[in-house]
């Protein structure tokens, strides 16, 4: 039987606010997360949302930096 997982969803406003809280450019945040600057841009414009490992990394960075945000919980899903 598959486990149910809940994760935090990040929207474009939260991603941008976290980046600004960290005082990083899109390029620098991308470097820190191991992704492309274009990916950060796509998250911030709402074209795509961070998911999986990227969403977990954003959550860890936010918690460690003291960033106050209202996480949106994903619906439980069976995997």
Low-confidence runs (pLDDT<50, min 5 residues)? Answer: 1-5
- The average pLDDT is 87
CATH topology: 434 Repressor (Amino-terminal Domain)
User: What number of structural domains do the residues give?
Assistant: 1
| Rg calculated over all Cα atoms | 13 Å
Structure classification: mainly alpha
SSE topology string: EEHHHHEE
CATH class: Mainly Alpha
Major beta-sheet overview: 2 strands, antiparallel
**Could you tell me the strand content as a percent range?**
5-15%
CATH architecture heading: Orthogonal Bundle
Description of the structure:
By secondary structure, this protein is mostly helical. It is built from 4 helices and 4 strands. The chain has helices at 12-21, 26-33, 37-45, 53-65; strands at residues 4-5, 8-9, 72-73, 77-78. Helix 1 (12-21) packs across helix 3 (37-45) and helix 2 (26-33) packs across helix 3 (37-45). It is globular.
Task: Kindly summarize this structure in a few lines.
This protein is mainly α and 79 residues long. The chain has four helices and four strands, in the order E-E-H-H-H-H-E-E. Helix 1 crosses helix 3 and helix 2 crosses helix 3.
Key phrases:
79 residues; disordered N terminus; 4 helices; two-stranded antiparallel sheet; 10% strand; 434 Repressor (Amino-terminal Domain); single chain; mainly alpha; two-stranded antiparallel ribbon
Task: Chart the SSEs and their pairings.
Layout: E1 4-5, E2 8-9, H1 12-21, H2 26-33, H3 37-45, H4 53-65, E3 72-73, E4 77-78
Antiparallel strand pairs: 1-4, 2-3
Helix pairs in contact: 1-3, 2-3
